[in-house]
Specification:
By secondary structure, this protein is mainly alpha-helical. It is 71% helix and 4% strand. The protein has a two-stranded antiparallel sheet. A hairpin with a 2-residue loop joins β1 (9-13) and β2. It is globular and about 60 Å long.
């Protein structure tokens, strides 16, 4: 068993390496694209004609909307595409660990870092979109200009924390499940894999909610600065 899918090399030519992280990430994206196409190709309004795919999609979207609305007390419309994509990618990546020989790409530090960088970019994106670029940039020198390096370090440390948290939790869960499967291969393999899948879905939820909280806290700070200036 490999600790990280980065260590599983399928093909290599000089500096070009195709490892399990890349292959399984493409697999998860392909599954999501096909499932999205199946769920949206024949959308109908009549409840009696709704397909299973559309019904499943509506349940997922409604649950995500509820979590976003309860988490930050704002309308979820503008956050749903980004937060929903994060949750579905990480969740599906981890659920597929039920299948033998599959390793979750979320257990790779490079994947976790890439997702955390997406959150790092999303925070100023939503901040500028809601309060404007000038008010957003002012938050980096609030309450005093001397706080500029500390505020920048805070943003970077949150990104690092997100990446390490996801990588550490998924990697440690995979390692624990692997040890249990080796120790008791005939008794608990299904249970331990189901446990790993459950933890993976929880980690997808935690990562998505933390990303949402970071975005919302940035917007709230920007609104507070703007209101103080207006007063």
């Amino acid at each position: 068993m490999e600790i990280s899918p980065d260590n599983i090399i399928f093909w290599q030519q000089d500096w070009l390496v195709i490892n399990a992280t890349l292959v399984y990430s493409w697999l998860v994206m392909l599954i999501l694209v096909i499932a999205s196409w199946l769920a949206t190709r024949d959308l109908v309004v009549d409840p009696n004609r709704v397909s299973r795919w559309q019904n499943t999609l509506e349940i997922i979207v409604e649950q995500l909307n509820t979590q976003i609305r309860e988490g930050i007390r704002q309308e979820p419309t503008q956050f749903l595409p980004f937060i929903g994509t994060l949750f579905l990618f990480i969740g599906v990546s981890n659920v597929l660990t039920l299948f033998p020989y599959y390793e979750s790409p979320a257990g790779s530090l490079s994947t976790a870092a890439a997702l955390a960088i997406c959150v790092l970019v999303a925070v100023p994106f939503y901040g500028i979109k809601n309060v404007g670029i000038v008010n957003y940039l002012k938050t980096y020198i609030s309450p005093l200009p001397i706080m500029l390096p500390f505020n920048i370090m805070s943003e970077l440390s949150r990104t690092l924390s997100l990446a390490v948290r996801l990588f550490g939790n998924i990697m440690s869960t995979s390692l624990l499940v692997g040890i249990l499967v080796v120790l008791v291969p005939l008794i608990f393999p299904a249970i331990t894999r189901a446990f790993g899948m459950l933890v993976g879905v929880i980690q997808a939820y935690v990562f998505s909610i933390l990303a949402l909280v970071y975005i919302a806290s940035g917007m709230q700070a920007q609104r507070t600065t703007k209101h103080q200036e207006e007063d």
